[in-house]
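[audit] Reproducing an earlier prediction to check determinism. Same input, same settings, fresh worker. If the tokens differ from the archived copy the diff job will pick it up downstream; this log only records the rerun itself.
[audit] input (548 residues):
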Amino acid sequence: MRVAHYEIYEARFGQWALKGRHQPKEEALARARAEKNWTDGRIPTILLQENVPEDGEDVDVSVIYRSPEIRTAFKPPDSGGSMAGSFMTVAINGVIIGAIGAVMAAVALAGSPARFFLSFLVFLMLTAGAMMVLFRVMVPVELMMWRNKPADAKRKAIEALSVIDESEAPRPPPPSNPNRIRKQRKGAFSHPRGEVIVEGESRSGHFGDNTGGAAHGQSSQLQELIAQQVLILQSFANDAVARLGAQTTNLQSFDRYGFNLYIAGGAQELARREKLTEHTMTSILTNVLTGQNTSLETAKAFAERLPTAGNRTRFRAVLDAGRAAMVATLDDKPIPPDCAIEKVLSNWSNPHGNAGAGPNAARRLAVLLTDLVGSTDATRKLGNSGAQRLLRAHNAIVRDAVKQHRGQEVKHTGDGILCIFNSAADAASAGMAIQQDAFAYVRDNPDLPLAIRIGIEYAEGMKDETGEYFGPAFTSIEGICDAGGNGDVAVSPAVKDQSQGAVLQYAELTPSPTAKSFVPGLFKLLWQPKTVYNAPPLEYRQIGTSDT
């Protein structure tokens, strides 16, 4: 079997729709798009991988990603004869438009000997042209892609889409001896290595009817398996806490994040050994982290962003150390010294050792992060060209404000920009300028809904040997940014304390309908649109009109 392509399905108006198809080499792009649909627009999304046979086998379809909390059964794509209805509508409207054009041509050519011939020619041309245009408008490309799929591939895709996620990782009672892992690798909690057991799935890997006795037995076995993994991971975390001793109570937010990464590495190793789905592993990890002085909201947000965090070198190193420690624990071997939690957290907090006050030493920084609000919806409404105009406008506005206020761009996140400043006042002033310029851009370009949210943190940060920034300021900035809505500049209390004055005023941040999540205790910068723009740094009407 070889991978043929990846397909993204979105649930809208009670029905699944095939919204995109990606080549095998575009797996990361397809997964990122599917995850973004849920995180930005809460659109139920499933990413399927379709494998084609090499030697006469059946087509295989498997779920690569599905949005959490899909608890409603949606209709399969193209149910109810939507294609036939669209064709009929296109044909009728095309003939009507052609007939109207023919009548108008006949009236205009009254008295001409070629009147009827020309009128008939106009009828044919207008009908064909109208049907082509209407077909493109009324028959979506995704519907054509679905109709062109082989019957076997359609059937298996529908089986995979008929998922209703009703599973949650159970919360078993704490073990009598939390520092000792109960390793029952065989018996009631084990399953054949060649089979994949995930929530709601049959042994064939597809979701089916769970009302039968075999399915009930499998569900019971799955719950026992999950409970076993929760116990193992809880004991693994408790052992890490015992190794840290009193240091655990003094962990700062940045060190706590590193500790959670270490535990997440252990969870990944458990998922690999037991062939559990990513969703199951996330539920288990969230369950255990909430028992380690981490709030439920923070644990969920951490688990959701774990795939992205794994792409960063330093974060990956902590995850790998956690996996290696879990391997040693499960195999009854000593944990390697470099993978012990004490050593890992020490390297996480100070990768340069006693480097002193060198250029990469820790220092207090103001970190500013921007994010385009509703970028997924903008792409759907405006198309790729319109979305690119919005992104170019955002980039030009942010970079000009950062330059004017002595900041430095660190990286582009895809739909936002991460920047650093030496002072909280400079960062807040840049944030205000960005929102004022964005307001002016929308005023001059009402057809382009440029919406930006901004988060600012003032805390310690440093740069590692690869040039990547890390530290408490960079760990918390994403959550601060997500707490704001369109037009908000959300800041931490430290930013408010360091920059509040006659020009920069703040108020308590309240929940916004466009916020991704809400973090209590934050503030928002109060700003007003400029009434006059003297020699503006940007020609707002020209932003995005060029491909350069």
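[audit] rerun output stored. Observation attached for the diff report: The chain has three domains: 1-165, 213-349, 363-542.
[audit] end
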